[in-house]
Amino acid sequence: MGTVYKPDEIRALADFAHSHELLLHMDGARIANAAASENLTLRQATGDLGVDILSFGGTKNASSEPRP
Fold it and tell me: What is the mean pLDDT of each run of 10 residues along the chain (68 residues)?
């Protein structure tokens, strides 16, 4: 089970970070699933909410094939 932050929660985190001259980094390991669960595009779930840096790897989102 993972936590899916609501858009207003991400915006609040971004606002707090930016008010302290910080950047907001989001680990995007499961961002595709989180965005889909909120019916958002990736842009709407990240940049539009104030996320400055997104690390997005394909290993958890890109393939349904089991790894050896």
Answer: 86 98 90 90 95 78 53
Residues 6+ positions from 15 with CB-CB distance below 8 Å: 50
User: In the beta sheet, which residues pair with residue 27?
Assistant: 55
Q: Which residues contact 44 (CB under 8 A, 6 or more apart)?
A: 7, 35
Report pTM.
Answer: 0.76
Q: Pairing mode, if any, of strands 53-55 and 25-27? A: parallel
51, 61, 66, 67 from 3: Cα distances, Å = 17, 16, 24, 25
Of 25, 30, 24, 23, nearest in space to 4 by CA: 30
Handedness of CA 24, 28, 30, 33 (dihedral sign): positive
